[in-house]
Amino acid sequence: RHQWRGVIEEYRDRLDLPAGTPTITLREGGTPLVDSPWLSRLTGGDVWLKVEGDNPTGSFKDRGMTVALSVAVGEGAEAVVCASTGNTSASMAAYAARAGIKPLVLVPQGKIAAGKLAQAIVHGAQVVMVRGNFDDCLRISRELAERYPVALVNSVNPMRLEGQKTAAFEIVDFLGDAPDVHVLPVGNAGNVSAYWKGYVESRHVGQTTRCPRMLGWQAAGAAPLVGGEPVRDPETVASAIRIGNPASWHLAVAAQRESGGSFRAVTDREILDAQRALAAHEGVFVEPASAAGVAGLLQEVAAGTTYAGQQVVVTVTGHGLKDIDTALSTFTELVDTVVDPDVEAAAEAAGLR
Ligand code: F0G
């Protein structure tokens, strides 16, 4: 018996890394592919959830960060910087701590979930709050990395996608082939691009017979890939994907075209309903952005789409505990019931008889 070694050691021969790259890992990846009887019943398909909230810092970002930090350290970096809606900064801070180098994060002020901010702070990141949105933060981070001795680890760094593609490898390893359809939320568009890279590479080495259709879902108020042009003031309750000008735009559009897929939008209401339904039906609690793919499937079901005879994988990207403020504030009808310390009172309050 041995434990999962993390995505670099598990897939080293399939990662394009500079020779001599050290391994900075928290044993990320190896996340569960959980069957979804509820979504299978609704869609008529065979639906699986790739539960990325089970990564060390609670999101899929760890897959890319182990690689980006390892390469940065191999190249002698002493500090790393990223722009983030929260998860990238939490992940980068953890891996920088592990590597013993300095993390600097730029986040949109007031627009990242408290859990993510706490992670960055606890791991020792210098947090700079920007009066602006994610797109502003990314522009500034790029320029900081050009002008100062600090390495940029946003997904414009190709090593991030190199690591994130391993999620597709794991799915193929488990299912024995690629699924027919892959559904996921899209913000900065790195993940959809990385999955596509992983699937295409799997087919090239003969591990799969097909590539899935890539169905990317954006929040309606932050849906540049749906509208076909950048959104100046993106707005959505799903703060992780509150992005108006995705960095991996061209890669993502290529993935959509080559796979015969699509980019579509779900409303905040649909996102929150999907988050709640997923937690209630399947026991999987994800953050709002992570529910966008599930929301998309539900929207399709309502419109009459079925997936009979098809295998569908839905990536749920981050853990629900990242953003409990949104969860608690939107589910107000479930109020606590306060009683005296007494069995009868508790039974009565609970509606038992
Ligand atoms: N889901 C979650 C939970 C995310 O944190 C992100 C992106 C996405 C989906 C979208 O993935 O950007 O590759 O299309 N979060 C980034 C961050 C932007 O800074 O944490 P994408």
UniProtKB/TrEMBL annotation:
It catalyses: O-phospho-L-homoserine + H2O = L-threonine + phosphate. Pyridoxal 5'-phosphate binds at N87, G187, N188, A189, G190, N191, T317. The modification N6-(pyridoxal phosphate)lysine is found at K61. The keyword Plastid does not apply. It is an enzyme of class 4 (lyase). Belongs to the threonine synthase family. Signal peptide: none annotated. GO terms for biological process: isoleucine biosynthetic process; L-serine catabolic process; L-threonine catabolic process; threonine biosynthetic process. Keywords: Amino-acid biosynthesis, Lyase, Pyridoxal phosphate, Threonine biosynthesis. PANTHER family: L-THREONINE DEHYDRATASE CATABOLIC TDCB, THREONINE DEHYDRATASE, MITOCHONDRIAL-RELATED. Catalyzes the gamma-elimination of phosphate from L-phosphohomoserine and the beta-addition of water to produce L-threonine. Its cofactor is pyridoxal 5'-phosphate. Pathway: Amino-acid biosynthesis; L-threonine biosynthesis; L-threonine from L-aspartate: step 5/5. InterPro entries: Ser/Thr_Dehydratase, Ser/Thr_deHydtase_PyrdxlP-BS, Thr_synthase-like, Thr_Synthase_bac/arc, TrpB-like_PALP, TrpB-like_PALP_sf. PROSITE patterns: DEHYDRATASE_SER_THR. This is Threonine synthase. Residues 24-318 form the Tryptophan synthase beta chain-like PALP domain. Its EC number is 4.2.3.1. One of its GO terms (molecular function) is threonine synthase activity. CDD domains: Thr-synth_1 (cd01563).
